[in-house]
Amino acid sequence: MTLDDALSSPTISVPDAGRIFFGMCRSKAYEAARNGQIPTIEINKSLLVPVAIVAKQLGLKTKFESAV
User: Fold this and answer.
1) Phi first, then psi: what are they for 28, rounded to 5°?
2) How many CA atoms lie within 13 A of 55 on its CB side?
3) How many CB atoms lie within 10 A of CB 53?
4) Coil/strand/helix, residue 43
5) Is the confidence at residue 13, as pLDDT, over 80?
6) Rounded to whole angstroms, how far apart are CA atoms 10 and 49?
7) Can you say whether residue 11 is alpha, beta or left, with left for phi > 0 and alpha for psi between -120 and 50 degrees?
8) Cα separation of 41 and 2, whole Å?
9) DSSP 8-state secondary structure symbol assigned to residue 9
10) Residue 47 backbone phi and psi in degrees, to 5
11) N or C: which terminus of the chain carries fewer CB neighbours within 10 A?
């Protein structure tokens, strides 16, 4: 997944968010998510990162920005 792919999706996995937005490995991304440093939502027992929130924090624009 690329940054453009991520910014075109409403949610992405914790490992993808950690890698794409913060340069983290999988374990550090989950640790950051557990500590609340990466925002997450749980849907059907899956932990997902809402891209619009992270993108806004980083000054990036998403495909869904008008919906936020």
Assistant:
1) -70, -35
2) 21
3) 15
4) strand
5) yes
6) 8
7) beta
8) 21
9) S
10) -90, 120
11) C
Task: Dihedral sign for Cα 32, 13, 16, 55, please.
Answer: negative
Q: Which amino acid is at 34?
A: R
**Which pair of tokens denotes residue 20?**
């794409």
Q: Do the strands 41-43 and 46-50 form a parallel or antiparallel pair, or are they unpaired? A: antiparallel
Q: What is the pTM of this model?
A: 0.88
Question: Of how many residues is the chain composed?
Answer: 68
Q: At 20, which amino acid appears? A: I
pLDDT of 68 higher than 50: no
Q: What are residue 43's DSSP bridge partners?
A: 46
Bridge-based pairing state of the strands 11-13 and 41-43: unpaired
